[in-house]
Every structure is written in structure tokens, then in C-alpha cells.
């Protein structure tokens, strides 16, 4: 076999936050390594990392009820919430390091102070939220979480929730004033700007078509240049390590690689829409990310939320998502994506997961069939004064939920992210959706430790310097919480 026409240390596939984070980490750990990035669209951060394609929550598990499970005895399991909060702190520390070192712009360009709230209605839900708060607030990471079942207090926190709300239905809310809104599009572009300034090559309009492993353990990455005047249109890049960070496109590419670790994996695509307003009067009355409770059978990513969004310094308010279904794995993907991902090794997984999630299928059918009027009524359950003239419907990013083998059921649906690595650590990819972007740094540090175990000890001091909490374990005492580094974030626009 002829040698590829150029050789690099690392190939990153996909121009999203995951590739940007991994590339930035590698550039700090191994400044002499050569990195090449391939993105099939004409810019980075146009799929799930685009700010209008995601909730931009800055997941810290303050407001998302699906991270705090109620156990049969009535107690609340907060272990997942604690893990996600810790992982978000790692991301915050890494971003702060990059800013302090002058490698990317100020955090205020992509991070805005935005309280995180949970809002529920009905006696049963109020009781659950009260117990959830009591459990969370006992942990140092959530010690500042506030609770109230007083409508007047909730109205002070988020006026739009209570304005013109009639009746005596019990309501309650929690608020974490330390929450943030993250413009992951801006952050992703800043990270790639840093990488290219260090001499690494970003190839836009380049689609990876195939991956072939060589006898020496390296990978031939077969790429097609999609630009109209490309010459040559095809080339092959040889790499010692490949990361597939292509969002929904990761599963098909990992399947093409032939690694045994991807066998049995499937993907269930879910699309979505948001209502958005830029009306200054509405935006001025709402400064929070308010999460509610998901409908029965709804996936966690479909939890309704009324969110302040700050994109390129401009604030708006979004509500949704309204779940839908498409067979595409990417927003700008192909309708054949789902079908071409079906392989002999994952048929049982996909059928088993489908049979185990009949309620999800029924929910998606109901959502797709919803009229515009029905969708707007859902918004009004959060914001009674909402008027259609102020809102526009936008399409959110495509999400692909992971399907994994299950001995008992054949397959199960995973609501989270999963890092898949080959046994020899020469290729890895990230599958799944939320909390994704918010925990990117922790996920990519874990990936590096799994794929480069021989380098981990040598890298440990640098990683400890750029993301101290990645080595800190859990925060179990108030002193450990106080030791968290403080971060500069932008205030509310216009404040």
C-alpha cells in the first residue's frame, strides 16, 4: 500500500466543540504535534455547537429534573447531578485558563451570568421539588440553591412565569443565581482560531468518506474536498490518532472504521424546534433559564424550558424544544442516515431499544402531529401573557440518542454521551447528546487518558494546572467548594 500523501499526528473530524476542546488540550500538552481538522460544512460550529441549535444551558444540574431521580423510598438520588456539576466546573476552569493565558478572548464574549431555575405546578410536583432542593442544598456544590413556593417571590425571580397566572394551583421554583448561558458557537470559533494560530490546519468543506487502519497502527483518512474548484478533489491523510467528533455523523464513521468496539451501537435521531422572541419588552422581563417537567414518555432533551439566550452579545428568549422526528443524523444530513447505519451487529440493539421505548414513539407521534396552536398553548403554560405575534418558530439541531446492547432487552436507549475508543487507543469518537458541550473538557481529558495511557503521567501536571478540579475528585466539604476558582462572566446585557 502506498503511503498517504501527508502524515500528521492527530486528525479531528468535525468542527464542533468536542473537536475544538480536544485539539486545544493536545496543543497545550504536545505543542510539537501536528493536528489537522476536517469539517464538511463551510464554517465551524454550524451543527449542534451552533447557539441556535442547542439550549446553551451551561449544564450544571441546578435546574434539570432528569438528573435527580426519585427512588422508590421517596429519597432523591443526586449522584448524577453532582457528577455533571463537577464536570462543568472542569470546563469553566479550562476556559478560564485559556483566557488568562491570552489564548482566547475574554469569557464575557461567550459566557453570561444567567440564573438557572426549575418551575413546577401541582401539589405532587411541588412536594418533589421541595425534597429535591433539601437534598441538593446539603451538598457543597449546590449550597446556594434557593427554593420558594411563594408566587410573589417567584414573580421577582422570573416575572413572565407569574404574570396573569390565575387560580390557586400550587407552584414552586428553585433558583441558582450562579447559573450561566454559554454561546458555544462563539467559544468553538475562538478555540479553532487559537488552534490555527498555532499552525494547525482547519479544512472547511472537506468531508471524511472513509477510515482505514494500516498495519503500523496508524489510520488513512480518506477525504473529499467539496468546494466547487477543488483540485485534487480527493486525498488521503495518514494519522497516528483519529478523533471522530462529528456529532450525529460520528456513528456512521466509526462503523466505517471497522473497530469492534462500535459493534452493537445504534442511533435514534430526534429533531426539534424552538419558539424565539427578540421583543425588547419581553426580553427585559426575563433573565433566567427556567426548566419544567417533561411529559410522560418524553426524552430528557425535550424538557420544556423558557431560556434567556445571549448570542453575539444580543439577548433573546427561547421556549421549547418541541420534539419531532427525522431520519437524518445531522441537521444538514441525509434522510438515509438512519437506514445506512443499520448493520447486522446492531439490528438486535435497535429493535430491542425500540420495543422498550414505545412510550417515546407515541410521544414523538403526538409531538409531530401538534398544530401551531397546540404548541403555543404549551408556551402559555409557562408564560400566560405570551402572544403569537411576538414569537417565531426556529428549527433546533438534530440529536442522536445512543442505543446500546442490553442482555435482558436486546437493546436500550441511553440519554447521555458515550466515548467509544478502540482497544489500542488509536481512534475514538463521542456519541450522544446532552449534557455534551458543557462537559466537553472532562470528556476529552478522560479520552486522552484512555487513548494515551503511556503519556498520562507526563501530562498530569499540565492537566492539573489548566483544569485543577479534574484531579480533585468530588467536593465533599464547604472548604473544597470555597477553593473553586472564581470566574469573570458577563452581566446581563443592558444591566
UniProtKB/TrEMBL annotation:
GO terms for molecular function: (S)-2-hydroxyglutarate dehydrogenase activity; L-malate dehydrogenase (quinone) activity. It comes from the Bacteria. InterPro entries: FAD/NAD-bd_sf, MQO. Keywords: FAD, Flavoprotein, Oxidoreductase, Tricarboxylic acid cycle. Pathway: Carbohydrate metabolism; tricarboxylic acid cycle; oxaloacetate from (S)-malate (quinone route): step 1/1. This is Probable malate:quinone oxidoreductase. GO terms for biological process: tricarboxylic acid cycle. Its cofactor is FAD. Gene3D superfamilies: D-Amino Acid Oxidase, subunit A, domain 2 (3.30.9.10), FAD/NAD(P)-binding domain (3.50.50.60). PANTHER family: L-2-HYDROXYGLUTARATE DEHYDROGENASE, MITOCHONDRIAL. Its EC number is 1.1.5.4. It comes from Flavimobilis soli. It catalyses: (S)-malate + a quinone = a quinol + oxaloacetate. Coiled coil: none annotated. Belongs to the MQO family.
Amino acid at each position: 500500500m502506498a503511503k498517504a500523501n501527508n502524515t500528521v499526528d492527530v486528525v479531528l473530524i468535525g468542527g464542533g466543540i468536542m473537536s475544538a476542546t480536544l485539539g486545544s488540550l493536545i496543543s497545550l500538552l504536545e505543542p510539537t504535534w501536528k493536528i489537522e481538522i476536517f469539517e464538511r460544512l463551510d464554517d465551524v460550529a454550524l451543527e449542534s455547537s451552533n447557539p441556535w441549535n442547542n439550549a446553551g444551558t451551561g449544564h450544571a444540574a441546578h435546574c434539570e429534573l432528569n438528573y435527580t431521580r426519585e427512588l422508590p423510598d421517596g429519597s432523591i438520588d443526586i449522584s448524577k447531578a453532582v457528577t455533571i456539576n463537577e464536570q462543568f466546573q472542569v470546563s469553566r476552569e479550562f476556559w478560564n485558563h485559556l483566557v488568562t493565558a491570552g489564548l482566547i478572548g475574554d469569557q464575557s464574549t461567550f459566557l453570561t451570568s444567567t440564573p438557572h431555575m426549575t418551575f413546577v405546578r401541582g401539589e405532587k410536583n411541588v412536594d418533589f421539588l421541595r425534597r429535591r432542593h433539601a437534598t441538593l442544598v446539603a451538598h457543597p456544590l449546590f449550597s446556594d440553591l434557593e427554593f420558594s413556593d411563594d408566587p410573589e417571590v417567584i414573580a421577582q425571580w422570573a416575572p413572565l412565569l407569574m404574570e396573569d397566572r390565575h387560580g390557586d394551583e400550587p407552584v414552586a421554583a428553585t433558583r441558582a443565581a450562579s447559573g450561566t448561558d454559554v454561546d458555544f458557537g462563539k467559544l468553538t470559533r475562538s478555540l479553532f482560531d487559537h488552534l490555527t494560530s498555532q499552525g494547525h490546519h482547519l479544512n472547511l468543506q472537506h468531508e471524511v468518506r472513509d477510515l482505514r487502519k494500516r498495519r503500523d497502527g496508524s489510520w488513512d483518512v480518506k477525504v473529499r474536498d467539496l468546494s466547487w474548484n477543488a483540485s485534487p478533489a480527493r486525498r488521503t491523510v495518514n494519522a497516528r490518532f483519529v478523533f471522530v467528533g462529528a456529532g450525529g455523523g460520528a456513528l456512521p464513521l466509526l462503523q466505517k472504521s471497522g473497530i469492534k468496539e462500535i459493534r452493537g451501537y445504534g442511533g435514534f435521531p430526534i429533531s426539534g424546534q424552538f419558539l424565539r422572541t427578540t421583543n425588547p419588552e419581553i426580553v427585559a422581563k426575563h433573565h433566567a433559564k427556567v426548566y419544567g417537567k417533561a411529559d410522560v414518555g418524553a426524552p430528557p432533551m425535550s424538557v420544556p424550558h423558557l431560556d434567556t439566550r445571549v448570542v453575539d452579545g444580543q439577548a433573546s428568549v427561547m421556549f421549547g424544544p418541541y420534539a419531532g422526528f427525522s431520519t437524518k443524523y445531522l441537521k444538514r444530513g441525509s434522510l438515509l442516515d438512519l437506514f445506512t447505519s443499520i448493520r447486522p451487529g446492531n439490528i438486535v440493539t435497535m429493535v430491542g431499544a425500540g420495543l422498550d421505548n414505545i412510550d417515546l414513539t407515541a410521544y414523538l407521534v403526538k409531538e409531530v402531529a401538534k398544530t401551531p396552536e397546540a404548541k403555543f398553548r404549551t408556551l402559555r403554560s409557562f408564560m400566560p401573557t405570551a402572544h403569537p405575534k411576538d414569537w417565531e418558530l426556529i428549527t433546533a439541531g438534530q440529536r442522536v440518542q445512543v442505543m446500546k446492547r442490553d442482555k435482558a432487552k436486546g437493546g436500550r436507549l441511553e440519554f447521555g454521551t458515550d466515548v467509544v475508543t478502540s482497544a489500542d487507543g488509536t481512534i475514538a469518537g463521542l456519541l450522544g447528546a446532552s449534557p455534551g458541550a458543557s462537559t466537553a473538557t472532562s470528556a476529552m481529558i478522560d479520552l486522552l487518558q484512555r487513548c494515551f495511557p503511556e503519556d498520562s503521567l507526563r501530562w498530569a501536571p499540565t492537566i492539573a494546572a489548566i483544569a485543577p478540579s479534574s484531579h480533585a475528585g468530588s467536593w465533599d466539604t464547604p472548604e473544597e467548594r470555597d477553593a473553586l476558582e472564581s470566574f469573570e462572566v458577563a452581566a446581563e446585557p443592558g444591566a
